[in-house]
Amino acid sequence: MNKILALFSEPVARDLLTKEVLPLYPDFKEIIRLHIKPYKKLIWETTYHVVIAYRVVFARQDGGEEKLEIVCSAHSSEPREVVHKVLNFLWRSGLADQEIILPRPLFYSREFNGTFYRAIEGKNLLNFIKDGERNKIEAMVAQAARLLARLHAVDLPADMDIFSEDNRFLRSVVPGRDMIVKEIKERFKGAYVDDIAAFYEDFIAQEETFFANTDKRWLIHGDAHPENIIAVGEHKIGIIDFTDFCPADFARDLGAFLQQLEYKIIRNLDDHTFALEMKHRFLDAYLQAAGLSLDQGLQARIDLYYRWTAIRTATFWLLKHNCEPEKAAAAIQEIKNNISNKRHAQD
Question: Quick check: pTM over 0.90?
Answer without folding.
Answer: yes
